[in-house]
SCP2 sterol-binding domain-containing protein (Marinobacter daepoensis), 104 residues
Amino acid sequence: MSVAQVFEKLEQNFNADAAQGLDLVFQFDIEDDKTYHLVINDGSCKLHDGAHDDPSVTLIMNSETLQGIVSGETDGMQAFMAGQLRAEGDMMLATKLGELFNMG
């Protein structure tokens, strides 16, 4: 599965109910691919190519880690502790990803 397909899957598995009242930008710096960002605004989710001017949180990882987390094979917190995933900005928002997207 390509990185673009992983993000399409994420977008399809978006939980709109969990995003009511939220206004967030999750940026994903994929070290061996491109940068993408997801804009979550009051129950909607839009995927964009490239960097955002002011992301709420930026998650930095390689494509293998991304695919593992989205498929449910890799636990995001374990990837973070192992140094496979780094976060910049509001790190607590990264923990919301599991609520906002049905992983696995």
About this structure: Strands lie at 23-30, 35-41, 44-49, 57-61, 86-89. The longest strand covers residues 23-30.
